[in-house]
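ugh ok so i messed up the first submission bc i forgot one of the chains. this is the corrected input, ALL of the components this time, i swear. 660 residues overall. if the numbers dont match what u have on ur side tell me asap before i send this to the collaborators (the ones from the other lab, u know who)
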Amino acid sequence: MEKKSIKSTARTAGILYLVIFVIAPFPFLLGRASLVVAGDAATTARNILASESVFRLGMVAESVVFLVELVLAALLYVLLKPVNRPLSLAAAFARVGEAVVQAVNLLTSILVLLLLGGASYLAVLEPEPLNALAMLFLDANAFVIMVWGLLFGFHLLLLGYLVYKSSFWPRFLGILLLVASVGYLAQSFGHMLVPQFDDVLSVAVIVLAVPGELAFTIWLLWKGVNVERWQQRAVEAARS
Amino acid sequence: MAVRRLALGIFLAGVILLGVLARLGSFAFSWVRGGESAAAVAAPGFEARFGARGSHKVGTQNLVIAGERPLEITLWYPAPGQASGNPATAYPYGMKMFGERSLMVLAAYQGQAFPGAPFDRSQGPYPLVVLSPGFAIGSKAYSWLAEHLASYGFVVISPEHVERLDPSSLWEATVARPRDILNVLSFVDQQVGPGGALAGLIDSETLAVVGHSYGGYTALAAAGARLDTSRLEAVCRSLPGPEDPLTFLCEALLPHAADMAESAGLDFVPKGPWPAWGDARVDAVVSMAGDAAMFGEAGLAGITAPVMVMGGTADQDSPYRWGTSLAYAHASSTRKVEVGFQGAGHFIFTGPCEALRRLTRMVPGGFCSDPAWNREAARTLARHFAAAFLLAELKHDPVASGALAPGQQAPGVIYRAQGY
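and heres the new structure output, hopefully the right one now
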């Protein structure tokens, strides 16, 4: 691969990482934070119907994130292949899996809109059960995030290891990504094992994950990759 | 080239900052369990008999009083004993921070009322309780009290005052709120007549006004307290310094005395107490952490109906001395009660925070916390005293009247009573 090409692959990965970093919180901020009132299905339903466009905008943001994730998985695979092909493939699979789970999670938002949409066949149900079902799907959305957190945490674990071993990225980036993976995995496994600590684990994931993801993004954008060392590793990998 | 790199760097830093802020926002707005519930909590060594729920099932409905300035109201009322289904009423506790009709929900809690249940007219008509929320606080923040009173056979109506959390508009609320109460009473008068939607449900001649914070001001005004900006000005001049908690009220109202007079239809700012804005039918008033300094001693003397004042002695938003204590001391009522929660702040009277946004915990203000009190315990006592007072005054219940006799020894409470 040409020098320019691998540098631009890294930069593109950085841009996509940045897109995800910025857009990922918006589905929650737009579709959830302002509209959902915990435990209050009736108010939540009213809020969503009154601000349906905001809710739909949240769904668009959610979609952009998982589509970008698919491309990013491929770019990271290309960049990390010279370090360890099977592991970089596993990292890409984990990231694609995470994107697929996110895509499936969009269904919960679609079902919320269907339930509150007033279709004539739903007239057999009173508003209260409809609102309650809509609330169930909104809650489910939050729990599916724990599922993709598992896949994403696993991806970060592999990514961190590969970056640490790469020699074309600084080792501290690998360490920060490994720390980030601990945050996501702790949150997801913690939710299954010790749900009473959800609150603490939500704080932990922010503290542990943001520095690693942000540092890696900035590095990709600013420095890209050490092209000489990357090529050296690619040649070594081709020989072995 | 260097300029391009600099511009790109600044752009990237901006985008990254946006991402970080969005993540922090997403974190701050997410919901967590609050650890509180709407249930009654026993106070050791004190029988809060009327803190336990009454015998009526409770229904709730939302209505709108049409007009130039439509007023949303919520009703809580006795519902038939066979009211069935899941009382899946969850209530938002929020403030109107960004718009007069848009509630920023801080917390939420579960109620026991049946939404849309039919009225139980079999034991009606019931006395009316108008419940005025605090400034810019949503009326559902007081459902814990409204449901409780309805379970004792009152119909509670709470207006959603049209206002936003903006201190510069407090003077407008000062004039508009008593009008909202009169608007509610006029609506009830229309609806209790023959063929009216509330006929047989409400006895509009037997009524009380209850309120928290600026709702306490509203309740006192509805019972006949008269604004006295001259006296407020004198009090404000005598304050030791700008750090005094009453300064907020001084700065919010005094510069707008002329605006308030004009808005109230007066040609000039009266020297001494203003004309009354109340309704002579008000039989009792409950002010919780209510503001009263704007009435002064002479203005408060306009209250002749029985009055109950409750407040936290460490309240920095509606200082105890200038609200609860002042109202008790100067209301002309022959029967009055003062309940002081020692060391409590302003928000012991707002809704239980069963679930709350992280933001609610992070922002100072104590919306879901109190420096001295377990809020559940404080609400239980508030429910007990409010229900006993309203039963005694509106239903002439002798047991309730007995529960108000001087010498009540609730732990952590300063209790004074007269006429019981």
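quick check: The interface with chain A takes residues 12, 15-16, 18-20, 22-23, 25-27, 29-33, 85-86, 88-92, 105, 108-110, 115, 354-355, 357 of chain B (CB under 8 Å). that seems consistent at least. The first helix of chain B runs from residue 2 to 29.
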